[in-house]
Each structure stands twice: as structure tokens, then as C-alpha cells.
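Working notes for the structural subgroup meeting. M.R. asked for a predicted model of this chain before we commit to crystallization trials. I am recording the input and output together here so anyone reviewing the notebook later can reproduce the run.

Input as submitted:
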Amino acid sequence: MDDNKVLVLMTSERIPLTPSMRVIIETSSLEHASPATVSRCGIVVVSADTVGWRSIACSMLVPFEDSAQTAAALLQRLELYVFAATQFVTVNCARPAWLNEMSAVALACNMLCSLLGGTANRSPEVLDALTQFTLVWVIGGALKDAEREQFDRFWREELGTVCVLSFPHSGSVFDFFLRPTSPAPQWAPFGDIVPPYVHEPGEGDQRVFVPTLETARVTFLAERMIDSAGVLLLGGGGTAKTLILAAVLRSRPAAEWATATIGVDGTTRAEDLQEALEAPLEVRKRVHPTEDNAVLLGAPGSRRVLYFIDDLSSPPPKEWGVQPHVELLRQMVDRGGFYDLKTTLHFCGVDGARIVAAMNPMTGSATIEARMQRHLHTIRMASPGSDAVRTIFGSVLRTLLQTSDASVRELAGGITDAAVAMHFGVVEAFVPSVSTFLYRWDLRCVSAMLAGLLTFMRPAHCSSPLQLARLWLNETRRVYADRLMTLEDASRFDELLASAAESHLASLELQPHTAAPDLFSTFLPREADHGAADGELSYLPAESHDQLRALLEEQQARLPWKLIMTNYAVEYICRITRILQLPRSHAMLIGVGMSGPKPLLRLAALVEGFEYAAPTVSHSCEPRIQS
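Returned structure, recorded in C-alpha cell form:
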């Protein structure tokens, strides 16, 4: 705004202000403000230390029947814990930008009201324990694994001596929840609520979800936090953020909640997000345009609406650090709606909206606006350890082998231990860098191994321990070794695989199969698969390269060109055809010019009966399909 009271927008639009008009700007900082802008505005700094969190707590701890006694007791416990806990995180941890005493108390009070609404026990032990439980997760839930260990020691040593009901000595303060049983409430480990894995016949790998301690803990917290505020899950790839929140959405009563899942990517605009937010809503009431809400929107049937925003941090921030899609969500949470950008430009209220979100702090903008995140209970998913991987892989494998011979079932433990050793051995040995950008190893790799076993393992092909072990060796190579970018790394991987097989599968003669390529093929003749039923997928080990070379040369006679069938070409066609047969799988073929990925793919598609099409982009950026 200049001296003539003309407001110039970023679009170069000039809006003259009349003498009676004033502009009030709320901002969290003056980072991008020029001295000229600051000199023309009256600046009022609202200090969090001056306002304090006690007024917030007193106003939020009202909805109790015995409000005077309960609110006073809760306020006393908050006085005891809040300052010490936030100060410890500020000094000793990488404190999240949104975390301060006021935001922590606001989230804690919301959660306490929700938790206490489900129990009639208001004894001092219950009030103290629920306050501890709430603050542990509100303040410490977003911390990393190493910082949680420090926070656990601090809570036990500094605050454990002044609490009424202290945490058990075993485990961590993050490992327990309160059972407010009367007359004696007690702490219970999250391990008690981990449900058993039940495999459904015909279940595809995309639907397999094996409950672990971490997934049970986060699900328990998310289901209770949703009743008080939104939820944000932080975690790397493959930590089951999306699966957990999708399960939470399915658990909501359909008569009370309407749910909507919105995927966000790097190209998502605020306009796209608003259109997705409006999709499950209908007009409930229209009022006079001069009112605050010209239109009131809501889910059909007077239900509340629960939005799941996946990959919230994917869109990059604008030039000045602004995240328009996040600001739109903040406007909906803060003001209860958004503006109608298509027609009237009036404000539309949204009745009963709640947001849950997931984001990977290693991708996209990595963070979101602190003024939005303060509205969300933030939980960082713990990095999966060997116990979690062993639980996931072992549960699925034991279920698949239930109908196999006893000798094959006994091998489940050895293969599980070998798979765990291989996964963490690869994570430690092959670290991602600029030149090895494909070396990203997470639980999706374990899921990919299970996908291969679920798809290709049949009793007729795994009637002996050696056959099962060979199939696992093949799937391990396909998931991990196919990403390796140098011959040295491939040789090192073979050493890791041979070591894991020798350590955990010593009873089998696997050395010939770990030292040389063990070819598996989906296009061997049907008569070679004596146990295959009609329409059933066949995936068998080949006797040699020559056996597969003859089959491929016969198939490529149908193509207008001829490919020289080297051992390299045979092996890569086997890898491509395997991917084509896996449900919902895709491939990225990376290679320098003349390395042959395109002709190999065309031949693999022909062998498996796929139509081949290659999208190209012209100079005018119009997509064309070239067959």
C-alpha cells in the first residue's frame, strides 16, 4: 500500500481505499515485509508470554458437570507439567515450529475433554494420569525416535516424582495408555491391544495389513484424537500412515460421519483442493448475503464430514513461502468455511468438518504452516525396527504355509529371519546419495517381497523347503538387487544374500542358487507346470538360459525387428514379465542410450499378451499415443 492508500495486489491489480476503509493484517512474522510497509502500518505485537496459556485452559475446561472441582484439578496438573515439558523440548530437542505452551495446552484441553467424556471416574489418579498421557503425546508425539528416548528419561526423572500415578518402570512413557477402571485405574501396554493378523483367501498384496505395536498405538491415539481435533501423521515412506488413517475413516459410524479421501501432489492448487472439499457437501441453509455465512454447507443427512488429506506437504511453497492449499485448510478450521470462488464470492460455512492428514517430512515442502499445524494432533510414526518387520513378514508367511507339509512350515521362521537380516543389511550397506538416488529402502520393499510370494507361491511349486527357499531368493533379488546401479554393489549384494542364507537356512543346499542367477519365468510352456490349474499363473525356475532363449526367439518372430538374445536380454525379459504379472505393479526401466530397455519391454509385453503403447510429448506439449 502506498501513500495514496492504493492497495496493489500481487496480480498488479490496484484497489483504491476510501477514507473510511482500514486494513487489518494478521501475520506470524514480518519476514517478507519491506520497511516501507512496516512504516505505514501500526504494529501491535501480541506476545504469547504476556497472554499466557492459563486463560485458554480456564475457558476450555468448562464442559464438565462438576466443572469447578474437575477443572481446578486439571488446571493444577497442567501447571505442574506444561512449562517443564515444553522447556525441555525447546532446549534439548528440535522443537517443532508450531509447538509452544499455548498451542500445547489448547490441544491438551481438547483431548482431555474428549477422554474424560468417556469415563465417569474423576478420581485424582485418573485426572493426573490422563493429563500425563495427553501431554506426553501432545508435546512428545512429534519427536523423533532418539528425542523420544530423552523425553522418556526426563519425564520419569523430573516429573515422575511429583505425579500421582506414575508410569510403569518397564518400557517407555510412549508404550502405555490408561484404563480408568474403578476404583483403581491402571496403566496398560499398547501391546495388549494389537489384534492378530487374519488372512483372507484371495487377498491381494495391496489389501494386506499386518497389525504391529506401532500401528495399534497410532490407531488407538488417532481414533480418540479425532473426537477433539484434527490429526496429522508424520513418517517416511512405507510406515503405513495412509493405511492407518484409511482404517480410522472406515471405523467411523456411517450414520454420523461422511468421509472423503483427497490425494495431494506437487501440482495441486488451492482451487483444486477446494473443489475436492466441496464434493461431499450439500447446501443446508441459505441466509441473507450480509450475514457472515451466505451459505451453510454440510454432509448429507445432518452428518459430520471427515476429510483425509494424503501427502499434505507435497505442493511446494510459493515464492514468498506461502502454501495456498494449507491456508485454505486453515481458513476452514479457523473461520469454519471458505469463500465461493465460482459465483457469488460470498463466504460459505462448512458445518461439522474435521481434518486428518498424512505427510512425509522428507518430501515436498517438508513442513506446513505452523498456524495450521497447531490445530492438529501431530504424531510421528516410529521407524520400523526388526521386530516390526519380523512380525509383518512372519505373520503373512506362516499363514500362507498353513496347508503345506510340516517340513515346509518349519522353514517359515528361518526365511523370516533371513528376510529381516537382508532388509536391514541392505539398508546399512547401500546408502542413498546423488549418484545412487534409487537406494530408498523402506517397508515397501518388505511388502514387495510379500507381494511376490502371495502371487507366485502355490503348494504344487513349494512342496519342499528347497523350492520355497529358491522362490524367496528370487523375490529378494528382484526387490533389492534390481535397483543396484553398479557391478560392485551387485557383487556386494550377492555376498549379503549368501551370508543370510548360510546363517538362517543352513540346513538347505542353497550355495548353487545364491552364486549364480536363478532364473524364474512366467512364460514356460503350460505342460512344464504339472500343478497349474486352468487360468492359474505359472512361475517356475528355468533350467538354463538356452531354454528361455528358444522360447523368446520364437515369440519375437512376430515383431518387425530382431533382438539378439544374449543372457543379459533373457534375464531382463524375465524380470519385466514378472512385474507385468504382479497386480497393480509398475516398472521404471533406467538405462543409457542403446542399452535396450524399449525393445526388451516390447518383447516382454508381447510374451505376456499386453498391448504396447508409448505416450510421447510433441513440441506443442500435446500428448500423443504411439503404438
